[in-house]
Please model this.
Amino acid sequence: MDLTRIKKKQYIKIMDLSLDFFKKRLEKLEDRFFGRVNKRIEPLQKFMSYYRCALMEIETKFKVLNEEFSFLHERNPIDSIKTRIKDFESIRKKLRKIQIPINTVSIESIEQNIHDIAGIRIICPFVDDVYMLADCLIGQDDLKLIERKDYIVKPKENGYRSLHLIVEIPIFLQNEKRPVKVEIQLRTIAMEFWANLEHRLRYKKNIDEKIMNELSNELSKCAEMSAMLDLKMKSIHERIENNNLN
Ligand code: GTP
Ligand code: MG
Model:
């Protein structure tokens, strides 16, 4: 009998057993760790899902209005709809911006202080559509208007135009009714075109200050041109519609 071969075999067996032992131990630790992480994350995921539900509710309300209007007037007051949920990094930045100390942050404080976790943007052909849709929505009796900012009547200094609403809408869950806040931005196609380009410039890094100022000035002029375009399109649209009646 070759003694070294027996020893080698025993050694391999012991090694296999120990590896197996450590693997199982590691798996247990892993389970415990992820179990704890899940327990902590679960309420946050549930909280975020409320906002997804609220967005579905609001989006449906706008789609219903669009459907009815297109039936009555043979055109759509909504060109497109975009929705988004704020990610955790943006929530963190916003908490810092509104100076909520990080050690006091809780789901409740986020809910109370950040009103744009759920965001929906309604893009319309004409300015009149923006106001018609906003009025129809605000008039619905399950909805509470929290804030209204009209940057169309009073554009921001840089030329930004849009109608912003913060509303609270109930969502109906298995055992509860929960009010959830949603930010709604309503704007025309021309306003959207402008805001998208301005947004790109705002977040562009490494642009020379002089060029940045030049581009901002040009964008500001474009905002005026875009407002004129909206007015002109509205008047042409009205003439087409009135002509239809004659
Ligand atoms: P935020 O902290 O950005 O939410 O600002 P706020 O709470 O004062 O609200 P406001 O109604 O002014 O803006 C809300 C949102 O509108 C922003 O997050 C942008 O999506 C959009 N917005 C506001 N101002 C501008 C602007 O100057 N340019 C562009 N492109 N978008 C803007
Ligand atoms: Mg915001």
Summary: The mean pLDDT is 93. The longest strand covers residues 177-188. Residues 41-189 form a domain with the Beta Polymerase; domain 2 fold (CATH 3.30.460.10).
